[in-house]
Amino acid sequence: MGAGGPRRGAGPPDGGWGWAVLGACFVITGFAYGFPKAVSVFFRALMRDFGAGYSDTAWVSSIMLAMLYGTGPVSSILVTRFGCRPVMLVGGLLASAGMVLASFATRLLELYLTAGVLTGLGLALNFQPSLIMLGLYFERRRPLANGLAAAGSPVFLSALSPLGQQLLEHFGWRGGFLLLGGLLLNCCACGAVMRPPPGPGPRPRGDSADDAPGEAEADRAGLRLREAPPGGRTRRRLLDVAVCADRAFGVYAVTKFLMALGLFVPAILLVNYAKDAGVPDADAAFLLSIVGFVDIVARPACGALAGLARLRPHVAYLFSLALMANGLTDLSSARARSYGALVAFCVAFGLSYGMVGALQFEVLMAAVGSHRFPSALGLVLLVEAVAVLIGPPSAGRLVDALKNYEIIFYLAGSEVALAGIFMAVATKCCLRRSKDTPPSQGAQGGASDTEDAEAQEDAEALPAGAEEPGSLQALEAPSPGAGPGEPKEAAEPGVDPESV
Questions:
Q1: What is the maximum alpha-carbon separation in the chain?
Q2: What value, to the nearest 5°, has the Cα angle with vertex 91 and ends 85 and 94?
Q3: DSSP secondary-structure letter at 5?
Q4: Rounded to whole angstroms, how far apart are CA atoms 402 and 375?
Q5: Three-state secondary structure call for residue 375
Q6: pLDDT one-digit tens code per residue, 326-374
Q7: Which of 177, 462, 476, 484 is deepest in the core (most CB within 10 A)?
Q8: What is the pTM of this model?
Q9: Burial degree of 306 (CB within 10 A; 0-12, 13-18, 19+)
Q10: 3-state helix, strand, coil in the chain (%, to 5)
């Protein structure tokens, strides 16, 4: 993919070097979602050495997940300022350094700061940029690419947990943390392949003395939110909070908050629930493996399904169906006591859970477009962090207080099903109704009223972002033609903007 490769004006390449980016995104997604759960195999050894309880030790994973979700806006700002590749390289070093330093910890507080904060921040600085770069390389095959990348989560979870157990048995928890820190250096290798797709015209050099760090990459990746006027000073919005005023983004954010309250609860409580039902320990642990195996197959399969021409414009409804299926699975299995019923629950849960995992970021990309996806993703992860810190801990307290798992499954299923119903109804009623409303004269130019006012005030123009095919944004308002200051390459090839 040199200077003669596909141009930015011709759209994302949908292949080529994009497959290497997809492979790196697969690895990063596996580390981001699998690593905090895999660390739990060391908890008993940590409890013994530090004389702490399970809840105190489990804060290591909780802090790691909180950093992964809660630092989304920080990652968005860094990606906009420096580009994806430098942020990922630094993130890989931080993640590795956190685990290496944790191997020398003498107190739980030191574990919280190293394995929790430092490693969690490093994983966050890898996870979000990898998804951004994946969206820049794939458009027509983007649902399939998202599904394949999301499959890294169950694959790595299935591999990292046994690996951690072997490291614990042979080297102890300190040696295991040290070796896992070395393993996380692979994040740096993944970051190195995140080369931005070539832009229109001759490809600029990223290390040019005339470019500020990351500016050439941000230009090629479409991450720069403002262009400098002729003779003016370059000014960029590092975090586009104006995306919060987007109706499609608001619907998605509320859906994700409701979903995160209950989606992870059944998987966390499943093993203990099975043991309380009289299932042997080995068989109870195997239930999570069943969920993982089904999840591995479901994610790429659902991604391929969502990429079909007839289904892709309705990907929001497919996401709603996956959420409702997951919620109904929890509700119908709340009284499952036999091992056969629990196996059936794991198959259904793994299928619907995999569908949700494969579609969640595809729906967000379709809702806001690739040019606003970095900021939107950071803000959504922050919303999800709040829900994750509320849902699973509250479920654990209810179990301790009530000694009853049935109520927890009812609550979790209701929350996830409500998220699916809300997504479907809001998409049908609110966003579809906006499509039928004729655009006002002030809407012409491809920007919101707020953005137009800002552009007029600053004497700057926002770069045009091509409308994503089948996007929810298209349901909010018809896409107007390009403004007079916008380059023609920004429009989708083969699409007349005035006819959309």
A1: 75
A2: 150
A3: S
A4: 41
A5: helix
A6: 999 999 888 888 889 999 999 999 999 999 988 998 899 888 887 888 8
A7: 177
A8: 0.69
A9: buried
A10: 75, 0, 25
